Amino acid sequence: xxxxIDLHLDYDDEDDLEDLERALLRARATELSEVxxxxxxxxxxxxxxxxREVLDDEGTQARRRYDALTRAIEALRRARDGx
Length: 83
Hints:
- It is a single chain.
- The protein is an all-alpha fold.
- It has a domain at 29-81.
- The protein is built from two helices and no strands.
C-alpha cells in the first residue's frame, strides 16, 4: 500500500541542503554495499540453509533501506529544483 509522507525541513542556506544530500548519498552507498556483500555471501554458498535465509532477509532489508533513501534523495532534489 503506497503512502505519501510530507516532510518539512528548514535550512539556512544552500550549503546546509547540499550537506543533507551528501549525508543521504553516503547512507545510500552504505546500504548498497551491504546489499552487495550479502549477495556475494549468498551466491558463494556461505553457511547452512538457515544462515543463507538470514543473509537473504538482511539483504532484503538493506535493499529496502537503499530504496527508501533513493526516494528521499529524489524528493529532496525535486524540492530543491522547485519541481
